[in-house]
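quick one if you have a minute, typing this from the bus. below you get a single protein, a line of residues and a line of whole numbers that encode the local backbone shape. could you go over both lines and see whether the tokens make sense for that sequence. anything you notice is useful, everything is just below.
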Amino acid sequence: MSLRSRLPAILVALGLVVATLLAFEPVRENGFVSFDDWIYVEGNDEIREGWTLEGFVWAWTAVRGSLWHPLTWFSHMLDVEFFGLDPVGHHATGLILHILNVLLLFLVLGRMTGSLWPSAFVAAVFALHPLRVESVAWAAERKDVLSGFFWMLTLAAYAGYVRRPGIPRYLGLAAAFLLGLLAKPIVVTLPFVLLLLDYWPLERSQGVAGRSAIRRAWPLIREKLPLFLIAGVFAVVTLAVQPDVTLVDWEVLPLEARLPNSLTAYALYIRDLVFPNNLAVLYPFPTSPPPLWQPGLALVLVAGVSVAIATVGRSRRYLAVGWLWYLGTLLPVIGLVQVGFQTRADRYTYLPSIGLLIMVAWGAADLQRRFALRKLWFGAGAALVLAALVFATRVQLTHWRDSVTLYERALAVTSGNYPVHSNLGSVLVSQGRNAEARGHYQRALEIKPDYVYALYNLGVWLQRDGDVEAALEHYRAALRSDPDHVRSRYNLAVVQAQRGELEAASRNYTRVLEIDADHVSAHHNLGNLLRAEGRLEAAITHYRRVVELEPGHPRVHYGWGHALQLRGELDAARDHYRKVRRVAPGYAEALYERGLAFARSGRLEPAIADLREAAELRPDWPAPLRALARLRAGRPDPKLEDAERAR
């Protein structure tokens, strides 16, 4: 193929890149947001270290964010390696991946169909639509654009395999498919899409012998059985790793509530594609059943389109392929298996919307040919649509500038959005806007009185404000709503310990560790309680676990050293106090305890040095000064330790 014949496609590709950059240019002004970016980047210690061997190993076992997606973790690590925690670099990576997806989509559709302008239109709308903002501008949704890249790469590999079948090419497309699954399990539907492409535009079933459609399709299905097997394994893994906090129980949200929502979501995604107005980061599940006309109207729409497409038959195969692409790729996230309490999400349309765009683009081309309409009018119409999308996307990006603008926009365009009220309250607390924060927590509880996160957040607010009794009541209410809510149970235990209710605190810390065996603070605090009770071996077990999880934890080494000191193991105790000294040189309590240990073993000079430094670090604390006075008077009586320690 000559350069001249390729020139239109090259120009279109350049135009796609320029238009996408123009549409998403405002993303450079956006920061991270509190909604999951903390889990994926800002507050994730493994990611913050950048690319390390320990992080590489961790990524293969981590299940944070409700998903197992090691490749996504790797991409975040590389971003930190290159850009640190500057959000501009992270957003740039997401945008680059999106542009690559756009170009690959244009290339694949053009190669498979031989139609330049319909392929260009699909790629352009996919590139510029404001529904893409959530996937591109949200750092936590790197998995969308990354899995999308391997989705498109698999399609390209499949196009090559169809032209020249062979084991190496098949292994190549299988590898791309596997990498996509390692980025996000939504890619499980890809083998189904490959079968649709066999029907149109590849029309591979035409040359297969057999009288029935099933017999003609069987060789194509058999060809993809390894891909379906891989997809099945990943589907099982995904369901297995979904934590209870995000996978909604069927008793909480029964099938009779999920089915209407799923039908309505199918219709609303179409509406948002045609008229992308009032987009939000979260569309909450309603606290009361919606009116029956909503799922009824959605059912009429979905069934009507399906019947109409079936009637058209083989003459316009692209309609069936586009429609089934849309219905099938949305199925894993349509709400039948409900994760969280959102009814739908803009990011879920990243790949499914391509099916609807195929229907529109090739349908318009058919209309133009059928009625001999002027191409100029279609071109002008397409240009107006794309210009409007660029404008809408730039506006939508401003709503993602920071957490406050994101949540305020969601509250402005949705109703009854109790999760966003709670999230906004937490952001406002971090900014010192406490009165506004409390109002949002209370509004969330007015909408949904048993919403565990608002109960917990308001409890934290009340505890900081000094109203401990009210805080306790909110923690207990949160646990009535969700007995396994770790943060509420942990905070309840902390308050109980402060109030001297040690047995109750110990029970709650133990329960926290039954739910989350690696909860560092619960191990530490329970170890302190056990040490105070004289159960030193049990306390040391918890301290040891903290050090395994978080090496260099100064307070834990202090507690461990103190427990060993109480057992009379003075040399081992001093080793832990030294570790505290290395990590936290200004830790006066560790210096005091080490000084007492030295005194107890008769080493008076280092004892005096430690006690003197402890007194200098904490001049308001009389215990080191009293111990020094005893030593100078020649009375280094270790029996006085307990009295001195009652401070």
Observations:
- The longest helix spans residues 87-113.
- The first strand starts at residue 283 and ends at 284.
